[in-house]
User: What shape does this take?
Amino acid sequence: MQTGPAISHDPALFADIVDATHDAIVVIDDHGIVQFANRATELIFGYSPAELVGQSVNLLMRPEEAAGHDRHLRTADPDIRQRIIGRGRQLTGRRRDGTPVPIDLVVSMLTRSDDVRLYIGTIRDLSDRRLAEESLRLSFESTGVGQAVVGLDGRMLRVNLALARSLGREAAALAGADFRSLIHPDDLAAAERWLAAARVDGRPLDG
Assistant: This one.
């Protein structure tokens, strides 16, 4: 690892940097035993680093996911590792009090000079994001203004109740329909320009 002199001459500073990150970092060995955890781990899961080190990482998982994790460690299947290593996955973790916590997990693998493998999990708490998504969903569904989520191909991915009622249709029946089929011929050219602009630069467009 390349570091500047400010860090290479002060190893404790590097540890402080790891502890200052908002994402949890948990390092386990081939047996699933925690070898390191940073301070953010406690903020997400409720266990201090000192409590986690030496314990099974299964403490942070729901029982059904812990069983699958144990199988992966036992088999050490390279195909499974390839599907997991370096890929973000959205899972449900388990806090100390047993409550679920939505997380994004990215696993990296490190092989030490003595051939011991370590797995480094970087974990982000998705609770705030999920709350924001739910708030947006409720707003979308409850507003009295007709709204639709439209894909770049012009097909409606989601339609709210207000729009469905104004058209005298079921929301489920409208999903997948081309929104241009609902546009008055006089407004179709403007709708095509709106869709073309979205395809070019992906900027959010109202309409």
Remarks:
- The mean pLDDT is 82.
- The first helix runs from residue 5 to 8.
